[in-house]
Amino acid sequence: MALPGTSHAAAAKDSAPAKADSAIAPIAATVPTAYELQLLYADRTWIWENGAAYFAKGNRRLEAWTSGQDSASVAEGRWLVTKDGKMCMDVAWRSNSYKGKQRRTCYSHRIKDGTIEQRKDPDGEWYSFKRTPEGPSDEYRKFESGDTKAARFEEARKLIDSKN
User: What confidence score (pLDDT) does residue 116 get?
Assistant: First the structure.
């Protein structure tokens, strides 16, 4: 089991059909609880190719930034988890040339055969988020404990705010 307490999580049917020659039933996926998801994200920084997002623990503040060759953007808002296995980010992105409205982006999670899988809603592809033991391609390897990129976020925010 990937997380404690998943035995009481709601079960979802596996989309893969059972093999005709197999006496073993397909493994059903379960949905992690809101508490289990909170343990995965709270007080962690998700590192991206050209940026990062920090998920604060107590107040659920979310700060994110990206930086390209000649551009930077930042997002500020909140994050939340739901009882149906979703982690959502309510943020407004802004840059020197763009000021967006707050939007919600959600990721669904399921636990299947000891692996937490994730997909971007509404219809992204499921992929390995976190295995036990950890796998080299797990997305969760890109998470660091604490607010490890706060200085980079502040640099990007100051650059954008000074030009607006």
Answer: 95
Half-sphere exposure of 43 (CA within 13 A, CB side): 5
Residue 79 has pLDDT above 60, yes or no: yes
Q: Please confirm whether the linkage preceding 133 is cis (ω < 30° from 0).
A: yes
Q: What is the pTM of this model?
A: 0.79
146 burial via Cβ count (<10 Å: 0-12, 13-18, 19+): exposed
User: What average pLDDT is seen over the chain?
Assistant: 84
φ/ψ of 78, rounded to 5, equals: -135, 160
C-alpha 154: how far from chain center: 22
Which is nearest to 161 in space by CA: 65, 49, 79, 77? 65
> Tokens in use for 43?
């007080």
58, burial (CB in 10 Å: exposed 0-12, middle 13-18, buried 19+):
exposed
> Per-residue pLDDT for 139 more than 60?
yes
SS3 37: helix
**Cβ(55)–Cβ(80) under 8 Å?**
no
> What pLDDT, on a 0 to 100 scale, did the predictor assign at position 20?
41
d(CA 13, CA 135): 25
Residue in 1, 21, 22 with CA at minimum distance from that of residue 133: 1
Computed from CA positions of residues 145, 131, 126, 27, in that sequence, does the dihedral angle turn out positive or negative?
A: negative
Taking a C-beta distance cutoff of 8 angstroms, is the pair 91, 76 a contact?
yes
